[in-house]
Amino acid sequence: MRAGGVLGATGALGAVGAPAHGIGRPDNWLYPGDEGYDGAVAGFNTTVTRRPEAVVLARDAQDVQKAVRYAGRHDLPVCVMATGHQASVSFDGGILVSTAEMDRIRVDERSSSVRIGPGAQWGPIAEAAAPHGLAGLAGSSVSVGAVGYTLGGGLSPTFGRLHGYAADHVSRFEIVTADGELRVATPERAQDLFWAARGGKGNFGIVTSLDFGLFPVRTLYAGAILYPAEAASDVLPFWRDWAAAAPESVTTSAAFMRTPPDAPLPEDVRGRLVVSVRVSFVGDAAEGAGIVAPLRGVAPVLLDTVDEMPFTNWDLIHSDPEGPIPAHERTGLLCELPDEAIETMIGLAGSASDSPMDLVEVRQLGGALAREPEVPSAVGHRDAAFTFFTIGVVPPEQAEGVRDYGALLIEAMEPWSTGGAYVNFLSGDEADPADVRRAYTPEVYERLVSVKSDVDSRNMFRLTHNIPPG
Question: Where is the FAD-binding PCMH-type domain (predicted)?
């Protein structure tokens, strides 16, 4: 995918790598060949490649404004990246604004809220909030950047069903739009922009500051129960029915998962295909134990890590890889998970299959995730019952087979699909405008296009899962 711009003397940059338009060589701009350039463009997923004409290591909002204004003068596209978890579209050319250094975190105990910079990661945010007895709707990994995650909705495995999407609890943000202006958006100010950016990802500008609500949570009763993959026909239908009856204080998922051979796990679990049932309960540990107890008797258990834990250990629920990894992903949304759907999953991803995938997951939605918040956002498809997500981690020579198998899994689950997708789970293989459109209802998508046309009519911020202007 070529995003515009040309490397070298024929583009916006001069032959020696510095801009050819009289701005000199700022000390926080990197060009191809500079020390630090390769590290700055590398992200979590190594299958995504970025070769911008320049990288701007932004230290504050003014640095972001300068980069955007420069790009505007020379008609260059702009990508923003903090941790690299959300930057999932390959490109060549343009400007990459790295906000990793803008990682400030300020907790306000009185209002149970936090103000963060665009480089802040969930791990440090949780550590900052914990002394106040507060926690946010964190993603599954400590290293995920909270701003990019929240702009894509923010589906939390900790207590998402209890409080909804992270985007639902944003109260204010500052954003640099395509004209280089720093704008403030709240429920009362720049209302269309406030609505669109919460769910529309990075299509509307670069967020330089974000305020969102925290919740009084000190501990979780949480973790994962691992079963042999051969027990899937007992475990998965039982989990589905158990989850349907669980209170909203339970957030849960189930997955076929191939454990790494070098993982810090018991020897009989390492390198094995298992069924992993993930559970997070907010409340008294004794009550949580009673809710989880039926899961412990449905089939032989290989490993059970579900226990009371401080919220700051929440990443142990999913135990995501630290990365970087060469990941190939596909996703969709399901309206139901009947026996036939489970049988299809088992046939294609279970112990008797030839699946090359490392993870095939269904994640329960519903609860507060299904309800429109007091201040509506652009998060789409709240009526879905489950996300369906698959990932294969393989070297380049095996990529084609894994991509094809991921597509096969998505196609096989089509009878129970809503036709939609969750935008944060879309991969680089799902970056076509038709794929992006799947993440929204038609009415929401048309409104997003309208807002995009107002604030970025030249589509500067297109190096993402793009919503083009009308």
Answer: 48-217
Orientation angle between helical segments 442-455 and 191-200, nearest 10 degrees: 120
What domains are there in the chain, each with its CATH number? 1-101 (3.30.43.10), 105-216+442-455 (3.30.465.10), 219-434 (3.40.462.20)
Q: Are 311 and 217 in contact (CB under 8 A)?
A: yes
Please choose, from the candidates 292, 288, 290, the residue with its C-alpha nearest in 3D space to the C-alpha of residue 308.
Answer: 288
Nearest to 152 by CA among 108, 207, 77, 224: 207
Tell me which residue has tokens 């990197």: 30
Mapping DSSP to helix (H, G, I), strand (E, B) and coil, where does residue 194 land?
helix
Residue with tokens 């680089």: 428
Query: Which segments within 190-306 are labelled E, that is strand?
Result: 206-213, 219-228, 250-258, 273-281, 303-304
CB-based contacts of 188: which residues, under 8 Å, 6+ apart?
none
Q: Peptide bond preceding 157: is omega within 30 degrees of 0, i.e. cis?
A: no
> Residues 130, 136, 141, 145: is their CA dihedral positive or negative?
negative
Q: Tens of pLDDT along 128-159? A: 999 999 999 999 999 999 999 999 999 999 99
Residue (of 136, 139, 95, 96) closest to 116 by Cα position: 136
Q: Of the ranges 49-63, 116-130, 278-292, 321-335, which one carries the lowest mean pLDDT score?
A: 321-335
**CA-based Rg of the chain, rounded to a whole angstrom?**
22
Place of tokens 């296009």: 449
Number of helices (H) and strands (E) in the chain: give both, helices first. 12, 19
- Residues facing residue 116 across a β-bridge: 105, 210
132: which DSSP letter? G
